[in-house]
Amino acid sequence: MMPSKILRAWLVAVLVLPAVLLGAPSVIVKDMATGNVLLSEEPDARHYPASLTKVMTLYLLFDALDAGKVTLDQKFSVSAEASAQPPTKVGLRPGSHITVEDCIGALILRSANDVAVVVAEGLAGSESAFAAKMTAKAKQLGMYQTVFRNASGLPDDEQYTTANDLMILTDTLITRFPERYHYFGMTSCKVAGQMLTTHNGFLGLYKGADGLKTGYTRDAGYNLIASVERKGHRLVGIELGADSRPARDARMVKLMDNAFGELGIPREVDKVDRVPHTARGKHLRVLAAADSDREERSYLRRGNGRGRSHELEQASTRSHSHKGKHGKTRARRRR
Predict the structure, then answer these.
(1) How far apart are alpha carbons 213 and 240 in whole angstroms?
(2) Can you tell me the mean pLDDT for 138-153?
(3) Core-most of 17, 36, 55, 102, by most CB within 10 Å?
(4) Is 40 part of the annotated catalytic residue set?
């Protein structure tokens, strides 16, 4: 019989295990025209979504727009709670206001955590109430392995998803809101007096890429939802838990190449496709992605919530005054 002290220690260890046990990275690629899954690996493994959470935040915001509950020029108030969110953020002051359309731009381009809370409070009164609505919508859509605890994707052990569930969300978003999909392909826009530029380096690396979202925390790894249209054919790829941004993007390039190849659609090679992230000189789109790495290395790591690291994916707050930068982190993944 197991000694009582050892048994108690074992029980404590089991009971405090995190809600998500991360394994190998997950990937899935879907043909939007036929609904066929072309490639997948561990699509039902649970992962922390990181900033991919904001895709659901945007889904509910688009839903409210279509229902006439809000308008693009309507202004949301910024609370002290929203203003106090950790980076990345726009840096909104308590008591200030931001339009709904600017919220969309800030969430997609800056992946702004302060704006995520502004949207949550504007639509549901509080972030916790909004997170409950996010989870309810997930279940309604058939995302049965997804739970949301916040609107931003900042670390929470009880917030998790799968590649399959995120594919359901992405598919439904593109189908339900085709007139709003163009926002995900933005590379820059002016928000709250700041010129924001995209953090999604994949948009400049793969011809035909026009969305959707990146995400990173130390425990989540590097996540990506990529949408590519080629010869009138759209593929969506999802990758969760990569070890680095370059590895994540390189694998997505290979996945898309293989998936289009299965459909008999040859790769359309251009200069951007073949230039590495470290390129300099005339390839400005790639240069912007390379420049972001210097900001990533200087980004401070802080603790948050349940002992998880901050959302570190994008640019540091000092990048607000630097135009043309694309923020991403190269922080090592730690368990």
Answers:
(1) 12
(2) 98
(3) 102
(4) no
